[in-house]
Amino acid sequence: xxxxxxxxxxxxxxxxxxxxxxxxxxxxxxxxxxxxxxxxxxxxxxxxxxxxxxxxxxxxxxxxxxxxxxxxxxxxxxxxxxxxxxxxxxxxxxxxxxxxxxxxxxxxxxxxxxxxxxxxxxxxxxxxxxxxxxxxxxxxxx
Length: 142
Known about the structure:
Thiol Ester Dehydrase, Chain A
């Protein structure tokens, strides 16, 4: 019997592949800082077009940053995963120029479901949002 010579992509290779096709994350200006199996740390700088009518950053920005971190962390095992439920709590205001870092961590993972948390902090290491996400793990591999 011949051993399989198919090389599975590394977590970082999977995230790089995802990021190359993720035009929204690119538009947000997301940079990938760290990738580990089931984890990912990403960052963006808040721009003026990201604020709402109150002059503070729209909650959708921290949500989207968290959602991207969830996607990268939950997919980098190899099987493709899609979110099925997410929630976010905004704990502090975010302003133009703030540098936001999202740190996604896997809490639990089975063959079909994964649970993740994402903490978003600003440049002063202050938590600005807390995000939880559940993903469905498909049978399709990267």
